């Protein structure tokens, strides 16, 4: 490739989001339109983020993509969809020549895929955001994130990773889905004390994927019919709790909604089990801690897997973390850090607290803990060192 400006590249990062009011079920499989609205917290990107560089060049002979160091096919409906949708929304006509050029995409996560965390939402949001920056797309882009997933291989929840802070995905009513997109309920600075502990469970057994799981739920669960009737009220109550920074209400609703998601999974025929014995032990521990405090101080939520995501306020992290580490100590010291992310002042576990909790210690059940906080939406990185392309347009692998 010749050196002089034949290639143009944009690098962006996008965050992971963890829902406190869950999306589970589609009313339109093709357009990825949900049966209910959902609400999530966008997490800090120092700990959890996808990074994507996209480039166009007249020298590229075909569209290509590399994910976590390995080349992947771009000829999947979802990648083709996102390319088509972003190009359709192109607002800067100066880019017309580039539009006809092939695109190269390089993407990676800063956390292990094996952790079983919702990496796809961050990845798709990052791809959509990077392309929108490359082509100069303006306006509402969260619906592209939703549309690009119409092949059912992607992630509808990706549209919530387009914003920072507290984000709602309003289900909308229109058949064409044009009123179904993400909106920011509050920015990350609104509740700066909010913290998250992600407990990565050791046994990452594979169960039904969320796309297939939620479809079977819609087809078979009577409880799901009840769930959709209460979701508007739940969304309103959660939005109000966030606006008022009312942690006990926020926490209780978060736990109730996670429990109901897993109840509709159990009511699905055949039933779906995402939580494990360890997940249930974490639930018991959280309720025992809240009993000691005589107030909801910590809340759990579980997605389509056994990992727990705990929400709590900064002042309560040392005490809660000491109890989590007491009941779920690392199996042996392999020199790896057990708690990663934001630093926490270490406090010895309170023996009075321990004596009030009737739970067996379970060494090695939790692989590691990620400590993070509420974070911003996607970012554009301008430092060329951050690019996942070399100066002459090749992927850095
Ligand atoms: C349990 O977004 O992965 O995490 O749209 O079929 O790709 P598809 O599903 P996906 O579902 C996420 C479900 C969830 C809850 C949530 O994040 O709201």
Quick tags:
single chain, 397 residues, alpha+beta, 6-stranded mixed beta sheet, 5-stranded mixed beta sheet, 10 helices, globular, binds ligand DP6, diphosphomevalonate decarboxylase activity, EC 4.1.1.33, ATP-binding
Give me a quick take on this structure.
With 397 residues, this protein is of the alpha+beta class. The protein is built from 10 helices and 17 strands. It is globular and about 70 Å long.
Describe this structure in words.
- One of its GO terms (cellular component) is cytosol.
- It catalyses: (R)-5-diphosphomevalonate + ATP = isopentenyl diphosphate + ADP + phosphate + CO2.
- Belongs to the diphosphomevalonate decarboxylase family.
- With 397 residues, the chain is α+β, with helices and mostly antiparallel strands.
- The protein has 10 helices and 17 strands.
- Strands 8-7-9-6-1-17 form a 6-stranded mixed beta sheet. A 5-stranded mixed beta sheet has the order 13-14-12-16-15.
- Strand 3 and strand 4 form a beta hairpin.
- It is globular.
- The two termini are 18 Å apart.
- About 2% of the residues have low confidence.
- The structure holds ligand DP6.
- Ligand DP6 binds next to helix 5.
What is the topology?
Elements: E1 7-15, E2 17-21, E3 26-28, E4 33-34, E5 38-42, E6 49-57, E7 64-67, E8 70-72, H1 77-88, H2 96-99, E9 102-109, H3 119-135, H4 142-147, E10 166-169, E11 182-186, E12 194-201, H5 210-220, H6 222-243, H7 247-267, H8 277-293, E13 298-301, E14 308-313, H9 317-327, E15 339-341, H10 351-355, E16 366-373, E17 379-381
Parallel strand pairs: 7-9, 15-16
Antiparallel strand pairs: 1-6, 1-17, 2-5, 3-4, 5-10, 6-9, 7-8, 10-11, 12-14, 12-16, 13-14
Helix pairs in contact: 1-3, 6-7
Bound molecules: ligand DP6.
């Amino acid at each position: 490739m010749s050196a002089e400006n034949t290639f143009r590249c944009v690098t962006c990062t996008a965050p992971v989001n963890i829902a406190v009011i869950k999306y589970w079920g589609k009313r339109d499989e093709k357009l990825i339109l949900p049966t209910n609205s959902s609400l999530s917290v966008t997490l800090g990107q120092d700990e959890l983020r996808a990074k994507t560089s996209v480039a166009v060049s007249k020298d590229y002979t075909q569209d290509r993509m590399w994910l976590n160091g390995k080349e992947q096919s771009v000829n999947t409906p979802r990648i083709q969809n996102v390319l088509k949708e972003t190009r359709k929304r192109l607002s800067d006509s100066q880019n017309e020549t580039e539009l006809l050029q092939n695109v190269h995409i390089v993407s990676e996560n800063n956390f292990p895929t094996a952790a079983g965390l919702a990496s796809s939402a961050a990845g798709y949001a990052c791809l959509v955001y990077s392309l929108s920056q490359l082509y100069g797309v303006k306006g509402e882009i969260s619906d592209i994130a939703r549309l690009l997933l119409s092949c059912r291989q992607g992630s509808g929840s990706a549209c919530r990773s387009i914003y920072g802070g507290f984000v709602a995905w309003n289900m909308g009513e229109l058949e064409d889905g044009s009123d179904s997109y993400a909106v920011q309920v509050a920015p990350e600075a609104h509740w700066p004390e909010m913290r998250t502990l992600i407990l990565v469970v050791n046994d990452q057994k594979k169960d039904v994927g969320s796309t297939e799981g939620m479809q079977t739920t819609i087809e078979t669960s009577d409880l799901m019919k009840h769930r959709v009737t209460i979701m508007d009220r739940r969304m309103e109550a959660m939005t109000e709790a966030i606006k008022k920074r009312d942690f006990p209400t926020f926490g209780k609703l978060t736990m109730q909604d996670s429990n109901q998601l897993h109840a509709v999974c159990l009511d699905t025929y055949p039933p779906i089990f995402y939580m494990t014995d360890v997940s249930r032990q974490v639930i018991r521990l959280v309720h025992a801690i809240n009993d000691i405090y005589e107030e909801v101080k910590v809340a759990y939520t579980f997605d389509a897997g056994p990992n727990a995501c705990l929400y709590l306020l900064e002042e309560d992290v040392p005490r809660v973390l000491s109890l989590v580490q007491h009941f779920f100590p690392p199996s042996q010291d392999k020199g790896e850090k057990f708690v990663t992310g934001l630093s926490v002042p270490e406090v010895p576990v309170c023996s009075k607290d321990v004596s009030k909790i009737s739970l067996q210690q379970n060494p090695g059940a939790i692989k590691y803990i990620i400590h993070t906080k509420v974070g911003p939406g996607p970012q554009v990185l301008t430092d060329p060192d951050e690019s996942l392309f070399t100066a002459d347009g090749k992927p850095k692998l």
